Amino acid sequence: MATEEAWYEIVAGVLKQQKVDLVTYVPDNVLRPLIDLVHADPFFTAFAVAREEEGLGINAGAWLGGRRGILLMQTSGFATLPNALASLSVPFQIPSLLMVSERGTMGEFNIGQQLVARTMRPVLDTLLIENHTLSRVEDVAFIMDRSITQAFATQAPCCFILSPLLTGGKVFAK
Amino acid sequence: MALQVNQPVSREQAKVMNRFDITKRMVALLRNEEAVVGGIGYTNFDLWTVGHRPQNFYMLGSMGLAVPIGMGVALAQPRRKVIALEGDGSILMQLGSLATVAARGQKNLAIVIMDNGAYQITGGQKTLTEEGADIVAIARGCGLHQSVWAADESAFEELIALSLKEDGPWLIGCRIDSEKPKDTTERDPPIIKDRFMRGLGVK
After folding, report:
1. Helix or strand or coil: residue B95?
2. Is the pTM of this model over 0.80?
3. CA–CA distance, B124 with B149 (Å, rounded to integer)
4. Mean pLDDT, consecutive 10-residue segments, chain A of 174 residues?
5. B74/A61 CB distance under 8 A
6. Domain span including residue B54
7. A7-166 CATH choice from 3.90.550.10, 1.10.10.10, 3.40.50.970, 3.30.300.30
């Protein structure tokens, strides 16, 4: 039973196994342990970008040059991406890997987050982008490993949505 | 060496050059399979029209992402020089990327900005550079210290040659005219991507 690992340790492990060594992100509180982990591990090149689109572009360029990357963000950040997904990742068949920490559900306290969150899955589904919601720690390795393999094999983007069921989410800070 | 860099000119002092002509001059200086990422608009069309190279990537949307894409290529292939070719309207959409490039100190990246102060492809409406925004000054403010306006064609060639030889990141501002492009980039994304990856030796 090796399920003592936290979700973010499993994520980092799968990324390593899949040789995804470039991590761009716009910070998020829920993602913090994962961000800290990839910064601490010399295997990864990890840095923050000013805007999510920028990270998508950097990772796309890196892949064209033979390197694998993933972009981390929160739900509201995903909402800045549809144009770049629709005009870069999808038509050019670029396997953009996205990881979104899900806000807007299961105890959201910010109405803006609640509303913008509802745009995420319809956008992914409209663009036919493979997406998986990670809810249980025991599923993380399987879903991610298989889906990353598929993304590179089929040259298609893939989005992993981290449910509050997995991460605990962000709770109301009084 | 670096004469131009030590004698910077302002945007107002820089000569208005012909976009196709300087694109041709730039491509003529590429001898080591340097990658060129063309942002959208007429800069992209001219890059195509000058003559396709396997190391050229042509965006077809995603306005503003030439610099990030160029930076990604540069990160993946640190020994290859990469040029991100972008218009003024486009870079105004993604100014944060200049700070990212500076923060990373991406040595093998040069950014060339074609600035005619207009959204030419949509009818020539003024961009903010025509209202006083100076991309070179903004770039310097972002930490890109090797940012200069090209005074004229020979200064432009000198700067391109310098950026291909010396560590960057570089930003070269070019004031350009509004000549119509002679041709249009072939719009076939998977083929553009496939040729580029082969041109970079990835496939």
Report:
1. coil
2. yes
3. 22
4. 82 98 96 98 98 98 98 97 98 98 92 94 98 98 98 98 94 67
5. yes
6. 3-199
7. 3.40.50.970
